[in-house]
Predict the structure.
Amino acid sequence: DHICLVVEPLDWQEVIDSGVFTVKEGPVPRFGARGSATSVYVLDPDGNTVELRWYPQDA
């Protein structure tokens, strides 16, 4: 249904405001295999959903 990329710390608002991505959802808190994270879901140029996920404990 989507792919997930773990990213370095981002200024989420800058990503959203850049206009480079079509944002579907986020930033939203999520929990996964590595613990709590913040995610933004965007569409790539082909219309695929990509989750950009940041784990604060990795900072």
